[in-house]
Amino acid sequence: MADQGDKREDSVPRAKDTRHERLKLALRDNLKRRKTQARERGKIEATPSHGHEGALDDDTGNENGR
Q1: Helix/strand/coil (H, E, C) string of 8-30?
Q2: How far apart are CA 21 and CA 37, in angstroms?
Q3: How far apart are CA 29 and CA 31, in angstroms?
Q4: Residue ranges covered by each domain of the chain
Q5: What's the confidence (pLDDT) of residue 51?
Q6: Given this model, what pLDDT does residue 14 score?
Q7: Calpha distance 29→27 (Å, rounded)
Q8: Separation between Cα atoms, residue 22 and residue 30, nearest integer Å
Q9: Helices and strands: H and E segment counts in the chain
Q10: Do 45 and 38 contact (CB within 8 A), yes or no?
């Protein structure tokens, strides 16, 4: 009977270790994905816009001269 108790105790930490390893890998993958997304967003923001000539607040096209 003591052997059965030992087997149960061994299986619980293994399950926790397996879960811990799985979560650790998932968090690492998530962090890598988020870093990649942040880098891509930084590239988009760093590129100059080419449509600045037709800005909405530009009065050069207004015939009334307001």
Answers
A1: HHHHHHHHHHHHHHHHHHHHHHH
A2: 24
A3: 5
A4: 10-43
A5: 61
A6: 85
A7: 5
A8: 12
A9: 1, 0
A10: no
DSSP state of 48: P
pLDDT tens, position by position, for the chain (66 residues)? 555 555 555 666 788 899 999 999 999 999 999 999 999 988 876 666 666 555 566 566 555 655
CB 50 within 8 A of CB 43: no
Taking the CB of residue 23, how many other CB atoms lie within 10 A of it?
Answer: 10
Residue with tokens 């050069």, as numbered in its chain: 60
Residue 56 CB contacts under 8 Å (≥ 6 apart), including other chains: none
The identity of residue 6, as a single letter, is D
Q: Which helix (H) or strand (E) holds 58?
A: none
